[in-house]
Amino acid sequence: VDYDDGSTRTLSQVVTSRGPFAWVRLSPITGRKHQLRLHCAEVLGSPIAGDARHGGEDVMHSPLLAHHAFYQDRSRRGVPLLSLHLHARSIDMRHPVLEDGSRVRVVAPLPAHIAASFDALGLTADDMAAADIGDASMFDVIV
Fold first, then answer.
1. Which of 54, 44, 4, 53 has the alpha carbon at shortest distance from 21?
2. Distance CA 38, CA 43 (A)
3. Phi-psi region of 133 (alpha: psi -120 to 50; beta: other; left: phi over 0)
4. 34-75: per-residue pLDDT in tens?
5. d(CA 138, CA 70)
6. Which residues are registered as beta bridge partners of 141?
7. I need a surface site. Which of 8, 33, 44, 85 has the fewest CB within 10 A?
8. How confident is the model at residue 125 (pLDDT cuts 50, 70, 90)?
9. In which band, very low, low, confident or very high, does the pLDDT at 139 lie, cut at 50, 70 and 90?
10. Average pLDDT, the chain
11. What's the pLDDT at 64?
C-alpha cells in the first residue's frame, strides 16, 4: 500500500498477522519526523505497539505478549513492558563521503523486545527472510 498525503510518502506491506497484531514492513519514500508512527496510527488506524505518543501503549497488555518469558522476566525485574516496536531493519542511502553515486546499506538485527514479540506471535527467521523487499530502507513494526 502506498500512503501519500502530499508531503510524506510511505510504502507498506502487511507481512502476516496473528490475533490482534500485524507485522508490517514499511519503506519511507520521504523522511519526516514521526512519519512512520503517524502513518500507522492515522492512516492504518493501528498505532505501533508500545507507541505511547500515538495510542499504542495498551497493546503491551495483550496476553499474547505479556505471557511470553521475555516479558515475564521484565515484569519480575520491574522493567516496564512498554517499548516501541519500531525497528530500522535496513537503511539504504547515498554514500555520505564518496561522490561517485555509490550507496551504503546498513542492516541491523532485531532488538530483544521485538524478537521476543515475534517469537510470542509465532514468527520465525524464515518469515523475516521471506519478507525482504529488496534494496529499499525497511522498518519492521508490530501494530
1. 44
2. 7
3. alpha
4. 888 888 888 888 888 888 888 776 655 666 666 677 777 777
5. 25
6. 24, 86
7. 33
8. low
9. low
10. 75
11. 66
Query: Smallest Cα–Cα separation from 41: which of 22, 55, 20?
Result: 55
Local structure of 29: helix, strand or coil: coil
Q: How far apart are CA 78 and CA 110, in angstroms?
A: 23
DSSP 87-98: EEEEEEEE-SS-
At 34, list the grid cell: 514521526
Per DSSP, 122 falls in state T
Cell of 119: 517469537
pTM of the model: 0.73
> Which residues, including other chains, have CB under 8 Å from residue 98's CB and lie 6 or more apart?
none
Spatial distance between the Cα atoms of 121 and 24, rounded to a whole number of angstroms: 13
